[in-house]
Amino acid sequence: MAAQKPAPAPSDKPHPDVSRRSQRSRRAIYDAALALVGEVGYPKTTIEGIAARAGVGKQTIYRWWTSKADVLLEAFLDLGEQATQAAGEAHAGGIPDTGDLAADLKAVLRATVDELRDPKFEAPSRALAAEGVVDEKLGREFVTKLLEPSLRLYVDRLRSAQETGDIRPEVDPRIALELFVSPLAQRWLQYTGPISYEYTDTLVDYALHGLAPR
Amino acid sequence: MAAQKPAPAPSDKPHPDVSRRSQRSRRAIYDAALALVGEVGYPKTTIEGIAARAGVGKQTIYRWWTSKADVLLEAFLDLGEQATQAAGEAHAGGIPDTGDLAADLKAVLRATVDELRDPKFEAPSRALAAEGVVDEKLGREFVTKLLEPSLRLYVDRLRSAQETGDIRPEVDPRIALELFVSPLAQRWLQYTGPISYEYTDTLVDYALHGLAPR
C-alpha cells in the first residue's frame, strides 16, 4: 500500500484495484461532464447523460456526488489542477515572487491567456459562466469555489508587494487585482476585444502606474 | 404633421393615427420582448411568444423585424434611450466634461451602478449577456450595437483628457477605460463582489493614479 499512489478523494483506503478502478471512473466522469456541458449547455446536461457518455452506471455518479453542479464543480477543479501541473513549478505555489512585481503579474496573466484559448477549457467554461450569469446561486457557488481561490493568489502577491513598498499601503488588494483581471475576463466572456500577451502586459503597466501623468 | 411627434423608426411618414398606433405597438412589443427574455431566457423566447404577450399579430412583428435577435436589439436600444432621458441633461451628450476627469468618470459609473440595479434592466440584460457568452455571433452583434457605442463615450472623454494633460499621451484610451468599466461589469455579471458608489469611486482613483507609489 505504501508504494501505491493514493486515490485523490475517498478518505478510506480501499483495495488498490478498487482504487485504480475508481480513479479511472472518476476521470471518465469528469471528461464526460466537461465535454457534455460544452456541447449542450448547462440546462441540458444531466447525470444520466454524463453516465452514458462516461460508460458508467448512474449509481456510480450518485455514490460520489449529489447533483450535476457538484460533478461539474469537481471536474473543473480537476481541470485546474491538471493545468497547474502542466504549467510546472512556476505556478505550483501560487503567483511567482521574483521581486519584480510587473514581471510576475505579466507571467501569470500570459498563462491565463493560454488557458482561456485552450479548446478543452473554453466550451465548458463558457457554458458554466453563462449559466452563472442567470442563476445567481450557481454563479455564486462556482465563483466561491473556482474563481475566488485563484484571485486570493493575486491578493497574496499584492500584499507581499505592499510589504516591499511596490504597492501603495492604502490600496485594497482585492479591488486592485480587478484592474488587470477583470478586463481580460470581460474580453474573453463578452467578446469585447481580442486577447493577447501584449494586451495583458499593457493592463499590468496601466494598473501599476496609472493613467494620469506622474 | 409638423406638430406631430415623429415615430422613431419608420423613415416614411404615415398618417398620424397610423404612426401613433405603430408607436403603441412598438412599445408593447419592446416591453413584451424584454419581459419574456428576462423570464424564460433567450433560447425559449420566440417571436410567437412576444406577439402573444404584446397582444399583436405575429405578422406585425415580422413587418418590422426579421428575427428575435433584431427585436431584442432594438428593445435594448430603446431601453437605453429611456434611461438616458430619465437621467436628464447630465448624460445627453455623452460623458460630462467639467474639467475634473475623476469626478466626471465617477458620476457616470455611479449612474451605471443605478442602471445595473434597476430590476427592469437586470433580468433581460442577464439573459442576453448569458446567451452572448455561449453564442459568439450573437455576443459580438450585441457588443457592437449595444455596448461598444457607450464605451466610445469613455474613449472620447479620455482623449479629451489627453489633450488637457490629465491622461498620459501614450495611453490607449480603448484599453484604459477597461480598468474601471470591466471590474464593475464582472462583479455584476459573475457575482464576484458587491457593487456600490464607493467601489466604483475607488476603481477610478486606482486607475488614474496607479497601484504603485508615486
TrEMBL record, chains A, B:
Q: Where is this region: Disordered?
A: 1-24
The UniProt entry, under PROSITE patterns, shows:
HTH_TETR_2 (PS50977)
Which segments constitute the HTH tetR-type domain? 23-83
Q: Which residues bind DNA?
A: 46-65
Q: Which InterPro entries match?
A: Homeodomain-like_sf, HTH-type_TetR-like_transc_reg, HTH_TetR, Tet_transcr_reg_TetR-rel_C_sf, TetR_C
* Record keywords, A-Z: DNA-binding, Transcription, Transcription regulation
Q: Identify the domain of life.
A: Bacteria
- Does the keyword section mention Transcription? yes
Annotated protein name in UniProt: TetR/AcrR family transcriptional regulator
